[in-house]
Q: What sequence folds into this?
């Protein structure tokens, strides 16, 4: 096992050999040194001073949070990245003194002015227990306005009055607010944890190219014209997949990178056109080696950043996840497993059940109290795009009575059999969906999540597990061919190699996803490292040998020079930070995000370019966008 480096990022010693006083080595006794934030312009930050500093002369610099003029005093709350300190300006009356001039300056200060103050630390008479510096204040002896400010378009406070588009347009102001600033600080801390953990496990951080070749499969590429190669284009990477595999061939047996990736996809709360991955690859490993390594990394991330210690991760088969939860990323913080009642539902004269491939439902415990109005709203939700079901049937068990939307077709004894299958008791509510097997199971999984939200079962706690043994291929009816469920470089499961020629649709992938709280946090696979096997998979995906060589010849060629067995995975870094911080959108954990139309509202991008620039790039267009 590779030696672990000292936890102090500025220390290059191994932990078990470190004698530096940084708090990490075996011989270290002193705590890790805190960063020195004093500069020639400031002596302290706005969160640093305490009662032990009373009497000191200090200099602070920051932004004016608020300025209040009260009788013989002006109070200014001065804010920087670290906190807020109250500064007091005395009013000596009508006498024109230096003190009077300082007071007059304070009277003219507006929100977000940048100022520097020097003064003595004093104990506050009316202490502010909600603020870390609330026991002290600065009696100002000199003040300088370094820069004035327009009145901000929204309040620079934890709770602001701005719409999201306004916040994104003025992102430099939004970042001054604690929620966004703290999100970025958490992001930096998580990145530090990742680098420490992986470096300590012998991983080498390697940067891969951003201008690469466009390849099929996956999402749409962003393309970049090449001026020096007229008529030809680079693509921005959707992931560093082929490069990290080539690094394995190159002998870099443990690679990682916190890397920007780009996909031209429809956007939503957890998707941006550019996003960040924790990208990793290892040589000479099997699937369990990879799961152990990165389960350890996630344990470290959660322990160091939110203080949570996970138990051993459960490892769930894809087939089990789909059967019991209807989704390949189930939230295991609550039960409510799917229950199939196709055999109980058919043969009672109800056409929608008799025609269905699958009749399946959930038991929402304690929801038998729902009113008819609430159940009708739930029926409407089931038919919406959120759930996507054909319809919903309900059975309510309340006050010893059984009521149902299908009572005309099923006797009370029939419904009691349903209750027995679901494990339902008095006070519960059974919700049932029906239709084609695949789509109905998917809808049931969505309904389970929706009820979990409504019942407050997904509002707290942590649950993490692996899902393994996905199908290698999916059949695309429209294209009339197989597509890769993950990507075309995923190895077939060793136990299913014999099915590659006879029944490829039943081949499992040597692949795995990590799921936390019902969110796919990362995924990967053991890779193909044989040129012959890679060609076989390409053929199943509809590539001719010539097309495969044209698109991926560089990788196939590398496989001919001693490619080692290897595997890896990638984690959604933005998504992980959002989950850790309890956020609803990854945009809050990205310094300069795009909006839901893929636009950067702050710099007004994308934008048109001059015709001459297009000419230089040999790009011609007749498209005229509508003026907005």
A:
């Amino acid at each position: 096992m590779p030696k672990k480096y000292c936890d102090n990022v500025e220390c290059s010693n191994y932990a078990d050999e470190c004698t530096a006083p940084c708090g990490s080595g075996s011989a270290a006794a002193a705590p890790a040194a805190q960063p020195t934030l004093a500069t020639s312009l400031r002596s302290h930050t706005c969160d640093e001073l305490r009662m032990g500093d009373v009497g000191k002369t200090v200099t602070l610099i920051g932004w004016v949070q608020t300025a209040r003029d009260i009788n013989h005093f002006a109070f200014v709350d001065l804010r920087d990245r670290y906190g807020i300190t109250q500064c007091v300006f005395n009013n000596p009356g009508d006498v024109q003194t230096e003190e009077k001039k300082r007071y007059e300056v304070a009277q003219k200060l507006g929100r977000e002015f940048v100022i520097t103050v020097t003064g003595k630390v004093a104990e506050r008479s009316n202490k502010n227990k909600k603020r870390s510096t609330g026991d002290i204040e600065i009696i100002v002896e000199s003040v300088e306005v370094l820069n004035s400010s327009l009145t901000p378009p929204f309040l620079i406070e934890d709770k602001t009055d701005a719409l999201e588009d306004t916040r994104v347009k003025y992102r430099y102001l939004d970042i001054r607010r604690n929620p966004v600033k703290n999100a970025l600080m958490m992001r930096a801390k998580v990145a530090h944890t990742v680098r420490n953990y992986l470096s300590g496990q012998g991983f080498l951080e390697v940067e891969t190219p951003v201008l690469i070749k466009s390849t099929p499969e996956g999402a749409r590429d962003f393309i970049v014209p090449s001026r020096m190669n007229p008529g030809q284009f680079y693509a921005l990477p959707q992931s560093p997949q082929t490069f990290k595999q080539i690094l394995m061939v190159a002998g870099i047996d443990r690679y990682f990178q916190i890397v920007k990736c780009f996909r031209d996809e429809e956007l939503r709360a957890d998707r941006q056109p550019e996003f960040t991955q924790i990208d990793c690859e290892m040589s000479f490993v099997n699937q369990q080696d990879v799961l152990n390594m990165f389960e350890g990394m996630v344990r470290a991330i959660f322990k160091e950043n939110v203080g949570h210690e996970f138990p051993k991760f459960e490892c769930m088969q894809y087939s089990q996840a789909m059967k019991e939860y209807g989704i390949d990323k189930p939230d295991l913080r609550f039960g409510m497993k799917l229950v199939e009642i196709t055999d109980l539902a058919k043969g009672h004269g109800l056409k929608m059940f008799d025609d269905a491939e699958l009749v399946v439902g959930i038991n929402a415990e304690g929801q038998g109290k729902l009113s008819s109005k609430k159940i009708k709203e739930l029926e409407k939700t089931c038919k919406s795009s959120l759930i996507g079901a054909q319809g919903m049937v309900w059975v309510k068990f309340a006050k010893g009575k059984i009521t149902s939307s299908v009572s005309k077709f099923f006797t009370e004894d029939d419904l009691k059999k349903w209750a027995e299958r679901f494990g339902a008791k008095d006070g519960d509510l059974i919700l049932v969906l029906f239709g084609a097997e695949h789509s109905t199971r998917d809808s049931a999984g969505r309904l389970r999540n929706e009820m979990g939200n409504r019942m407050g079962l997904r509002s707290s706690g942590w649950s993490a597990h692996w899902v393994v043994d996905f199908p290698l291929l999916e059949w695309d009816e429209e294209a009339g061919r197989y597509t890769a469920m993950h990507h075309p470089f995923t190895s077939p499961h060793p136990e299913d190699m014999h099915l590659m020629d006879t029944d490829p649709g039943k081949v499992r992938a040597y692949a795995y996803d990590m799921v936390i709280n019902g969110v796919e946090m990362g995924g990967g696979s053991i890779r193909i490292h044989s040129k012959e096997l890679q060609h076989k998979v390409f053929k199943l995906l509809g590539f001719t040998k010539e097309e495969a060589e044209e698109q991926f010849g560089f990788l196939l060629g590398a496989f001919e020079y001693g490619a080692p067995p290897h595997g890896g995975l990638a984690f959604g870094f933005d998504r992980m930070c959002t989950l850790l911080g309890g956020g609803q959108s990854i945009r809050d954990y990205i310094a300069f995000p795009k909006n839901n139309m893929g636009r950067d509202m702050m710099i007004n991008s994308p934008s048109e370019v001059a015709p001459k620039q297009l000419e230089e790039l040999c790009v011609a267009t007749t498209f005229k966008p509508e003026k907005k």
Observations:
- The radius of gyration is 31 Å.
- The first strand starts at residue 57 and ends at 70.
- The domain at 314-318+465-567 is CATH 3.30.930.10 (BirA Bifunctional Protein; domain 2).
- Residues 599 and 605 are 6 Å apart (CA to CA).
